[in-house]
C-alpha cells in the first residue's frame, strides 16, 4: 500500500531524487538540513554547476564556497563539506565510515547509504519520525524510533520505502494529519489521537540580541570574519564594545534565531578588513550586514 501510494503521490520530480550520484545526494542532504525544500531547489543545481565533484569543491576558496551557499544559512555546513572533500576522493559506502566525516551524523550517513547506495538501512528524519510515532503509537526515545524504523523497513525496496515514509510525513501525516488520504490508515494505532504521539508545534525562533559597531573611514567600512558558529567564515561588522552612540535597531530572522540588531557608531581598533562602501553594498555579505549599511547617512552625525 505504502509503495503504491508513493508511486502515485511521491515527489519524484525533486532533482536529487533523479540521481544516484553519492556526492549530489550528499549535497542535497546537507542543504536540506534545517532549510526548506523550496529554498534548496533554488540553490541545488547552481551549486552543482559550480562544484560538480568533490574534487572541485576541494579546490574552491572559502569565499567562493560561501558565496554559492549564500541564502541557505548555517554556513558551517558548507565548510564541513569542503573538509570532507579534502579528506576523501569518493564518499565511502559504509555507514560507520561516513559518520567519521565532518558534518555527517547518523541521519545523513543513513540517507546517503539508502538513497545513493541503495543499502537496506532505515532512515529517520523528522517526517519519518512523526509517521512512525503515530503509526506504532510510540512515545519513547529516538533510539526506539530507529529500532522500529529498522523492523518496519521493506527489505525488498528499502530506498523507496524510506522515501515513501518521508513523503507521507511531509504531505499527509503532517501536524494535523489527513488520515483519510493515508495508505497506512487501516493499521495506524495513533490515528485517533495523533497529537499524543506528535505534538511538536512549529519551532519558536530563539530570541537573540546582537550589538555591532559601524565604523567608516575614507568611505571604507570595517568588517571582520565571524569566528562563532553563526555566520562562520563570513564577513560581519565588528562587535560593539562601548555601545554609546546608537544609530538604530532592526529585526532580522536567521535560521532558528529571531535577532534584534543594535547598530552603534563606534570607532574600532585592531585588524579589520576595510571594504569600499560601494563594493560592500554589492558584495556577498550576510543580509544582516547589508541592512546595517542603511545607517550610513546617520553615521556622519557622530564623527
Ligand atoms: S493514519 Fe493518520 S496518523 Fe496514522 S500515519 Fe496515516 S496520516 Fe499519520
Written description of the protein model:
GO terms for molecular function: 8-oxo-7,8-dihydroguanine DNA N-glycosylase activity; adenine/guanine mispair binding; iron-sulfur cluster binding; metal ion binding; oxidized purine DNA binding; purine-specific mismatch base pair DNA N-glycosylase activity. This protein has 303 residues and is α+β, with helices and mostly antiparallel strands. It folds into three domains: 21-117, Endonuclease III, domain 1 (Orthogonal Bundle); 122-202, Orthogonal Bundle (Endonuclease Iii, domain 2); 206-299, Nucleoside Triphosphate Pyrophosphohydrolase. The chain is built from 15 helices and seven strands. It has helices at residues 2-9, 22-32, 37-50, 54-59, 62-69, 76-87, 95-99, 106-115, 126-135, 142-152, 158-171, 194-197, 277-282, 287-292, 296-299; strands spanning 206-214, 216-217, 220-225, 235-236, 246-254, 257-265, 273-276. Strands 2, 3, 4 and 7 form a four-stranded antiparallel β-sheet that branches. A three-stranded mixed β-sheet has the order 1-6-5. Strand 2 and strand 3 form a beta hairpin. Helix 2 packs across helix 3 (37-50) and helix 2 (22-32) runs antiparallel to helix 8. The model has no long low-confidence stretch (mean pLDDT 91). The structure holds iron/sulfur cluster. Iron/sulfur cluster is lined by residues 131, 134-135, 172-173, 177, 179, 182, 184-185, 188, 190-191, 194. The site of iron/sulfur cluster has 14 residues, from helix 9.
Amino acid at each position: 500500500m505504502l509503495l503504491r501510494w508513493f508511486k502515485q503521490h511521491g515527489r519524484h520530480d525533486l532533482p536529487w531524487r533523479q540521481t544516484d550520484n553519492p556526492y549530489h545526494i550528499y549535497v542535497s542532504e546537507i542543504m536540506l538540513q534545517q532549510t526548506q525544500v523550496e529554498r534548496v531547489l533554488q540553490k541545488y543545481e547552481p551549486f552543482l554547476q559550480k562544484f560538480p565533484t568533490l574534487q572541485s569543491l576541494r579546490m574552491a576558496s572559502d569565499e567562493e564556497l560561501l558565496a554559492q551557499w549564500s541564502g541557505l544559512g548555517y554556513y558551517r555546513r558548507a565548510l564541513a563539506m569542503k573538509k570532507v572533500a579534502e579528506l576523501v576522493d569518493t564518499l565511502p559506502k559504509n555507514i560507520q565510515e561516513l559518520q567519521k566525516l565532518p558534518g555527517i551524523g547518523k541521519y545523513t550517513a543513513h540517507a546517503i547509504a539508502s538513497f545513493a547506495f541503495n543499502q537496506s538501512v532505515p532512515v529517520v528524519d523528522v517526517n519519518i519520525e512523526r509517521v512512525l510515532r503515530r503509526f506504532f503509537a510510540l512515545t519513547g526515545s529516538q533510539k526506539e524510533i530507529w529500532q522500529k524504523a529498522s523492523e518496519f523497513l521493506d527489505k525488498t525496496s528499502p530506498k523507496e520505502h524510506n522515501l515513501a515514509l518521508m513523503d507521507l510525513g511531509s504531505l499527509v501525516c503532517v501536524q494535523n494529519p489527513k488520515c483519510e488520504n493515508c495508505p497506512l490508515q487501516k493499521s495506524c494505532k495513533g490515528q485517533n489521537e495523533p497529537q499524543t504521539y506528535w505534538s511538536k508545534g512549529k519551532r519558536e525562533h530563539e530570541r537573540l540580541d546582537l550589538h555591532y559597531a559601524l565604523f567608516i573611514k575614507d568611505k571604507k567600512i570595517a568588517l571582520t570574519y565571524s569566528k562563532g558558529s553563526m555566520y562562520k567564515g563570513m564577513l560581519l561588522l565588528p562587535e560593539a564594545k562601548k555601545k554609546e552612540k546608537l544609530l538604530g535597531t532592526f529585526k532580522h530572522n536567521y535560521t532558528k534565531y529571531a535577532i534584534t540588531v543594535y547598530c552603534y557608531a563606534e570607532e574600532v581598533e585592531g585588524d579589520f578588513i576595510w571594504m569600499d562602501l560601494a563594493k560592500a553594498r554589492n558584495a556577498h555579505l550576510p543580509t544582516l550586514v547589508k541592512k546595517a549599511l542603511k545607517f550610513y547617512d546617520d553615521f556622519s552625525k557622530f564623527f
